[in-house]
Amino acid sequence: MSSAQKGVATKRFPEAVVRKFATGLLLAMGSRAEDAELVADGITTAALRWHPGQGQGLEKFFRYHRRYKIGGSVPNAEMSWDREGPSFALLNANDGWGYVAGQKAMRKAMALAAKTGVALVGVRNSDHFGIAGYHAKTAADGGFIGISMTNARAEMAPWGGKTAVLGTNPWGLAIPRRNAHPIVLDMALTMAGQGMINWAAREGQPVPDDWALTKDGKRTTNPLDLLQGATQLPIGKYKGSGLSFFTDAITGVLMGAKFGLSVFQDEKDFDVSHVMIAVHVESFMPLDRFYDRLDQLIHEVKSAAPINPGEEILLPGDAELRRMEERKKSGIPIDAESIEKLRVIAAELGAPFLLE
Ligand SMILES: NC(=O)c1ccc[n+]([C@@H]2O[C@H](COP(=O)([O-])OP(=O)(O)OC[C@H]3O[C@@H](n4cnc5c(N)ncnc54)[C@H](O)[C@@H]3O)[C@@H](O)[C@H]2O)c1
Questions:
Q1: Does residue 133 sit in the same domain as residue 246?
Q2: CATH number of the domain enclosing 9
Q3: Are 125 and 232 in contact (CB under 8 A)?
Q4: Hey, which end of the chain has fewer CB within 10 Å, N or C?
């Protein structure tokens, strides 16, 4: 996704300000300090990595706050383990923050996989877990291969349909490298989300015709045609729709949480489900040998002949890493409308407003 923001006015803020502001909002809602710092880190990481129209940064507080006010989100929830075996576990997030639940689950998967080689940990009764790559990268930072996935609100019609049943159900996959950032593929199973369509509408720009269908099942490039009852189109046509089905089956259905048409619908009871998988590299081969072989694969991929001479072949996550480096220097862009909404939320919570 391009990070061009012509047409929508944005203001940039240092990473430290975004982090402190997010932490203050979470503390004001009653989160424990360690959880507030963790969720704020997820939100700040997302804001550093993604386009503001993707809505993964401070924009998340619009819904966090709404759900907190009606008791749907419990900022200081006590999470509990429902089941546990040698290479699996199931966490009940008890309506707590999705970032906290996702991190607890991935860390448990890593601890179990260190003994068994591979572990899968599910979560039920959770919230939006943020960016899928955040949880997968936690595993890669610890020397594991990490896979994370979640179900989400029905926004995608099954292939051939025109009513939404399946979610954007993103996947994060991360693999550790020697002396380099892990490689992180972080993607929704739809071509784009509602947030980017809204952003294009505000910019007055057309959208690609493979992003979404109108409520009548027609393709259009006019974002205004899509704002009423659009369904998101999957990546890879019926293959993405199939992946989304399986993601919902492995998360919501298997973990005893909501799925399909019911997950993420009732703001008092989202009951979102996630799955974290950790693979212990050294159970399969010595770490050094793995890193040598991965470097060889990376070299082969990067050396592919480009379609346009001189253009670089990117690895998954390269674009986000570059955006992050640039924003660490120049600040995180936030649009004026979001800043005003965040001002109201901070005032209601009695938290310091730092986006001046
Ligand atoms: N929790 C939820 O319910 C939820 C739902 C949807 C999306 N999300 C999050 O939103 C974020 C954005 O997702 P998205 O699918 O819109 O992202 P995207 O389509 O912008 O990027 C997807 C992936 O493709 C890679 N990529 C992009 N261009 C590339 C190129 N030229 N060569 C190689 N790789 C390339 C990126 O590095 C990234 O890993 C993600 O963090 C995702 O987890 C969360």
A1: yes
A2: 1.10.1530.10
A3: no
A4: C
Q: Are residues 110 and 52 in the same domain?
A: no
| pLDDT tens column, 4-17 | 445 788 999 999 99
Residue 288 tokens read as: 């050094």
pTM recorded for the entire structure = 0.96
Q: Within 6 Å (CB) of ligand 1, which residues are found?
A: 1, 50, 54, 56, 128-133, 150, 152, 168, 170, 172, 185-188, 192-193, 314, 316-317, 319-320
pLDDT in tens, 80-120: 999 999 999 999 999 999 999 999 999 999 999 999 999 99
Is residue 341 included in any domain, yes or no?
yes
| Tally of domains within the chain | 2
Distances (CA, A) of 203 to 5, 12, 194, 226, 333: 8, 18, 14, 15, 15
Cα angle, residue 10 at apex, residues 9 and 14 outer, rounded to 5°: 165
